[in-house]
């Protein structure tokens, strides 16, 4: 067997270091979550001598993380459903329907990807407050849709551009309306892209802290990622309990990635490989 050449090492070593830098924070958090408070204070970097699984139950029950978890599930599910519905319709229209201004709208969606949320957070908060949507599920759902819709539209547009135009024309000749073409042809054909984009949108919404903190200021309506900050405030010196809360909040994301990593990769590269 031939030895790997220098060029392969130039790729392997940086990738291994990057993987280690990515995995280490997760392993460190899991190790801290299994320690007692005294053990953590004495040596925070040592391996846990005994596994304190009760830290997980303490983190879950002490601040009502079940309520925060349910809030996140409701908001993320509704936001992703709206994102996929609107994004797939807009992607179909921009990619396959001929109308004046479609190119400009596509560029607008692309430009919106480069606008940080911090730029629009104050106007968005004022609009939501004026509509009575602050501290409500619909307010946070609409905020997520507004933030992540350009990404969804851009990827769905890129995917639908790979569909032959002749297929749409043939369906129109057969008597289908534009909605009929979308529902009977484009929606089933776009299922792989919808799955990939839906997973990415769900991860974005689940991991969000800033938008949720802005739109849901009261304790009862917090999402899980914001709710775990209550552990840090209530247990100012109990870092293992806080680490256990972080571990619980990150577990759904980790499980999703492990089982659906191929779909996630497809969603990330959809805009580059389609169209």
UniProtKB/TrEMBL annotation:
Main location: membrane
Keyword Ribonucleoprotein: no
Keywords (A to Z) from UniProt: Cell membrane, Membrane, Transmembrane, Transmembrane helix, Transport
Protein name: Carbohydrate ABC transporter permease
Localization per Swiss-Prot or TrEMBL: Cell membrane
Pfam families found in the cross-reference section: BPD_transp_1 (PF00528)
Signal peptide: none
Membrane-spanning parts: 9-28, 68-92, 104-125, 137-156, 193-219, 239-260
PROSITE patterns associated with the record: ABC_TM1
Domain ABC transmembrane type-1: 69-260
Similarity comment text for this entry: Belongs to the binding-protein-dependent transport system permease family.
Membrane association type: Multi-pass membrane protein
């Amino acid at each position: 067997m031939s030895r790997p050449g220098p060029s392969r090492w130039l790729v392997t070593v940086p990738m291994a270091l990057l993987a280690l830098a990515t995995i280490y924070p997760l392993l460190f958090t899991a190790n801290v979550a299994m320690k007692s408070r005294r053990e953590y204070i004495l040596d925070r970097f040592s391996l846990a001598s005994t596994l304190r699984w009760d830290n997980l139950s303490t983190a879950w029950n002490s601040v009502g993380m079940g309520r925060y978890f349910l809030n996140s599930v409701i908001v993320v599910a509704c936001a992703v459903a709206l994102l996929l519905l609107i994004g797939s319709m807009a992607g179909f229209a921009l990619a396959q329907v001929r109308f004046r201004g479609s190119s400009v709208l596509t560029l607008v969606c692309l430009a919106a990807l480069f606008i940080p949320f911090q730029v629009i957070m104050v106007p968005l908060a004022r609009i939501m407050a004026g509509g009575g949507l602050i501290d409500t599920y619909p307010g946070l759902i609409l905020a997520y849709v507004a933030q992540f819709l350009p990404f969804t539209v851009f990827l769905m547009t890129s995917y639908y551009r790979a569909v032959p135009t002749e297929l749409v024309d043939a369906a129109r000749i057969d008597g289908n309306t534009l909605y009929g073409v979308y529902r009977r042809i484009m929606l089933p054909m776009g299922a792989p892209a919808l799955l990939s984009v839906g997973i990415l949108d769900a991860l974005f919404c689940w991991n969000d802290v800033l938008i949720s903190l802005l739109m849901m200021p009261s304790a009862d309506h917090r999402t899980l990622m914001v709710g775990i900050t209550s552990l840090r405030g209530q247990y100012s010196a109990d870092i293992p309990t806080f680490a256990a809360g972080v571990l619980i909040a990150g577990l759904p994301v980790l499980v999703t990635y492990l089982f659906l990593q191929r779909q996630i990769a497809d969603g990330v590269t959809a805009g580059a490989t389609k169209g």
